[in-house]
Amino acid sequence: MRSIHTVAIATATTLCCAATSVAVAEPGRTQVRAAHTIVVGAPVTVLPHTAGTTNVPCQGGQVPSGGGVRTSGTGVFLTATWPNGNSWGADVYNESNTAQTFTPVVICTSQRHVTRHGNMANVPPGQTGLVRAACDPGQVASGGGPDAGASGTGSDHGQSYISQSSDIGQEWVGRVTNHGPGAAILQTWVRCTSTPHTAYASGPTRLARGATGTAHVDCRAGEVPTGGGGLGNPAVEFNESYPTATGWTMRATNHGSIALDLFARVTCTAP
């Protein structure tokens, strides 16, 4: 069984696809809205049939609100995308026969955030696990992600592929399916703030059996993305999930026996 990533924290189902607006105001306190900047890390090479891990930090006193992972090929699958202290971490598994690259992406802001996490869940080989992480009362989720990635690199680690990483108001939901030979540990992390945020979902992208496809959703005019992800059937597994200047983009592969849908999900705020 792998050990879970160690991160700095303050303390310690599926979701419908309509836009969800959550506004939280602290009595007697003005809501301060800060700029959000997308920072792209250095690409890392991952060898065939091997797991890899990396991260990208925020700078200049900024902190992560959310983040994601970009990859170079269809044979790379996400196993972790999570807030790692002042950085954003990314784990992948390359099941292809050629070397690939993956790149962490973080959204950084001076807006105050805290990190919360859900309980750890044991995911046996061949099984699917789901863990929710909740913000404190009066706060909302700005970003987050699940961690069932590699404790090290190698051919026998990190084969629990993400099939859901998305908000649900004050929570973040992470889901993986374990394709590895041993049990995995799943934990979901959420970044929380008292600043109002709004979440949006894309329309469905239909993926034929064995097909890879993309889904994208934009924030509304005057808003910027703070985090995001996506969801679908547990058999639709993420190849990449990352912010753009206007929203969030997903790419996933349908490992199911029938055609299935993929949805992108983005969390936005007005800077």
Return the CATH architecture.
Sandwich
Number of helices in the DSSP assignment: 0
Number of domains: 1
Mean pLDDT: 87
Shape: globular
Largest sheet: 8 strands, antiparallel
Q: The CATH topology is what?
A: Jelly Rolls
Poorly predicted ranges? 1-32, 151-156
Secondary structural class: mainly beta
Order of helices and strands: EEEEEEEEEEEEEEEEEEEEEE
Query: Approximately how much beta-strand content do the residues carry?
Result: over 45%
What does this structure look like?
The radius of gyration is 17 Å and the shape is globular. β13 (160-168) and β14 form a beta hairpin. The protein has a single domain, classed as Jelly Rolls (Sandwich). Helices cover 0% and strands 57% of the residues. It has strands at 20-22, 36-40, 44-46, 50-57, 63-71, 76-84, 87-94, 100-109, 114-117, 121-123, 128-134, 140-147, 160-168, 171-178, 184-193, 197-201, 205-207, 212-218, 224-232, 236-243, 247-254, 260-269. Residues 1-32 and 151-156 have low confidence and may be disordered. It has 271 residues and is mainly β. The protein has no helices and 22 strands. Strands 1, 11, 13, 14, 16, 17, 19 and 22 form an eight-stranded antiparallel sheet that branches.
